[in-house]
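Predict both folds.
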Amino acid sequence: MAKRNFDENFDLAGKRAIITGAASGIGFEIAKMYARKGADIIVFDRTESDELKAYVEGLGRIYMGYKGDITKGEDRRGVTDAAIARFGKIDILVNCAGVGLIDKAVDMTEEMWDLTMNVNLKGMFMLNQAVGRTMIENGGGKIINMASQAGIVALDKHIAYGVAKAGVIYMTKLLCFEWAQYNINVNAISPTVILTPMGEAAWEGEVGEAFKKTIPARRFGYPEEVAACAVFLASDAASLINGENLVIDGGYTIQ
């Protein structure tokens, strides 16, 4: 077998990436970094981001926005069909859309449970399936599923969120098992608390300082750190990494 040439700079030039939840937070930073690495960006979110559109196009890359809800089948099919119609193929899918509803198990409502599962697990799988079918037809691709340290270790008030993210990690392994033969890489990323605007608001003050003391690195993460890992996993340099869960937690889950 001939040795493949790998770009040590993790180049994504000419790649087309669907990124869910990219109007803000981690997905926003992934979209920006992907564009800097040469990818064209398809944003699938419930809201639009004029800032992201201007940023991507300012780099000379193509920005395509698709406003929709990952829990709705017609929207999942719509963004997949629109991306194929525009570009002919989808090279990368990054699943960042999610909700973070937390409560004690005894207080968790059925509505909170269902919404968490529908967005964080079911919606993600169904979009993986829709895009995965096109990747099988077109010779391969890269899928990155956003999981969490809450899917690895037990966290207070995270019953629904943790179960959904544990499901994401296991789903990632099963999709690798079935799709690796088609040149599709399916991997997950499990961050600790990430300092997005939402993360900063949820973990400011004494609560956040106390939690940081339980992390060996004694700090939370930044969205750019997650984005850098997403670039690596989407690049040719990670072509033999499949079915893995890349943990970005400063050592929290080793304890």
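Second protein follows, with its predicted structure tokens after the sequence.
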Amino acid sequence: METKAKSKVYPLAMTAVMAAVMCVLGPMSIPIGPVPISFTNLVIYLALYILGWKRGTLSYLVYMLIGMVGMPVFSGYSGGMGKLFGPTGGYIIGFIPMAIIAGIVIDKCRNRGVQLAAMVVGTAVCYAFGTAWFCVQAGYAVGAALGLCVFPFIPGDLAKIVIAMVAGPMIRSRLERAGLNPAQ
């Protein structure tokens, strides 16, 4: 029988675990230009499948706050407010609406095509936030910024979405079979 203490602590612990996974994988990036390839969005998508949209988004916010206070959890093992206000900070902020958009649809709709579309739309919103901020901070025209900050990332981001669509439900199902409902 479940105790009240477990029912309150367990979801918080699962949220913290996913934030910790982001802290481990987020800094591991591949520098290909002014915006590196990061694994953060993959972990966000996995968190949404495993925890649901509210706790998945919360796990990202915890990760973001950890980075904002200076811990080197952002791409390239960087952290601090300078990263947030720098040229790539719009992508860090853009992950929030990405998580909300994709997460709500993942929670409400079991149709895999609709989930895929929601993650693509969420990613496009993240691209929009990030590219707009990059243009302002780095002084690039929109076309040039898209060429540097969006187009090279589309194939990899689509691959991350597919990985999350396969792995996320499997992980959640196995946790549930083990009696550990991560979205409690």
